[in-house]
Amino acid sequence: MEDPESAGSAPPPGLSSLLPPREFLRSRKGQLLLAESVLSFIIFICYIASLAASFMMAPLLEFLLALFLFFAYASKLNEKFKGVHWPLADFLRCVTAAIIYFAISIAAVSKYSDGASKAAGVFGFAATIVFAIDFYITFNDLVTFLKQGSSDSPEGHKTE
């Protein structure tokens, strides 16, 4: 009988094959996406328990989008599907999420007096900061990518 640890470097089949690789979890993008997912889920739960339940849709959508991008980047779907401009889509998601979280957090803290609404507002401000950091980093990567693309072929920009 062969020892499963010495059989090879492939992980055993099961639920552990669904987990993202450690390299991605240690990367800055992996940690930001994980923080965005966790914060969005906490905010969603707080809004469900509060009087401001009308705000629960934004954190739910952001949670699902962050979770999708987390697993898309972890499984390297961005390298397989070249038709989607991943940095631009991620940048737009982060910008809109930061603006929406900032707006609904102000509304939740100022308009509602229950504790769950206040907690959702405070977590919303924290999520605004995390999304702002993510879109700043993504913006810098996007600018670098666009500068490389514009300097590749100067002949392609000539008009006839």
Automatic annotation (TrEMBL):
GO CC annotations, alphabetized: membrane
Record protein name field: CKLF3 protein
A Pfam family assignment: MARVEL
Membrane topology: Multi-pass membrane protein
Compartment(s) of residence: Membrane
Gene name of the record: Cmtm3
Keywords: Membrane, Transmembrane, Transmembrane helix
Superkingdom: Eukaryota
Keyword Cytoplasm tagged: no
Transmembrane residue ranges: 32-50, 56-74, 86-108, 120-139
Domain MARVEL: 24-143
